[in-house]
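Backbones bend. Shown next:

***
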Amino acid sequence: MATTDIRNREALGRLRERATGPAGLIVPLVIYELLFFLAPLAYLFRISLMEQTTAGAYAGDTFTLANYREVLLSAHFQDIVFFSLKFGVLVTALTVLASTYYAYAVWQADGIFGTVLMFVVLVTLLTTLVVRLFSVLLLLSPIGPVNQLLTVIGILREPVLLVTNLFGATAGQVYTMLPYTVMPIYSVLATLDDQRVEAARDLGANEFQSFREIVLPHALPGITVGAILCFA
């Protein structure tokens, strides 16, 4: 009996080691991706190769490339794709610029001010997407603070529509993606020794030169990750 218990415990220990090893951690993720990501995509791909009936349904046991020809050759779909790419590049560029400046400000800030700046990013990151987009809608509405400020300082004679157009869509996307881009950039900047920047200042470099020669190259991996997340 004692020998059997020892063998059972040894077998259970080996099973635990396998479950907590690399394979045991990866297998559940692979199964999840197969069931909820790859399998639905494979099903949609099969449907895309079916012929469409007059009733609008897809006929089984058929094969056609007409759907892909229509997408590739249609001027309407081409315009949509090109506009989406241009819009993605615009949003990514603006988001990366704003995120780099914000992350640099957080990195340079001392004490409570830096904590507040990072807290703002975290609160925005944890806020649901619907609430964030609704806040943008309120800010850019004809009776919102942006229109009121531009009217008071004389840039606008009367409130204008800043939503449901390219400007509003760009502002909403930049505001939505900003936290996801700030975090990787700041995480890389946090590893930068500020004495390198101080040494550059002592050698005669101004703030822009020290940023261009030291901070920006160091932050490039974080900027790359943030740009990929934003564009995707």
